[in-house]
UniProtKB/TrEMBL annotation:
This protein's UniProt keywords: Membrane, Mitochondrion, Mitochondrion inner membrane, Transit peptide, Transmembrane, Transmembrane helix
Family recorded in the similarity comment: Belongs to the cytochrome c oxidase VIIa family.
The keyword NAD is annotated on this UniProt entry: no
Subcellular location: Mitochondrion inner membrane
The protein's name in its UniProt record: COX7A1 protein
Length: 80
């Protein structure tokens, strides 16, 4: 048992946290609940806008490709 303790002490393992993280939940709640007229999913800043636009672009592409695939499957191929 003593050997295990000395190994843990040398290796630097610990069950306690080394640095406490700041709790930013209240700050984020104030930002999200502020009546600024902006949509909630865009209040996070430029990264939220980038994620939103990327998601919308992928959705539009996916819907367009789905419609194209369905039309290609429905219409018979012309044989020459």
């Amino acid at each position: 048992m003593h050997a295990a303790r000395s190994l843990v002490q040398r290796a630097g393992f610990s069950t306690s946290t080394r640095k406490a993280l700041d709790n930013k939940v209240l700050e984020k709640q104030k930002i999200m609940q502020a009546p600024s007229g902006e949509m909630v999913y865009l209040k996070g800043g430029s990264t939220d806008k980038m994620y939103y636009r990327t998601t919308m672009g992928l959705v539009i592409f996916g819907v367009g490709y789905s419609i194209f695939s369905l039309l290609a499957a429905c219409l018979p191929k012309k044989s020459d």
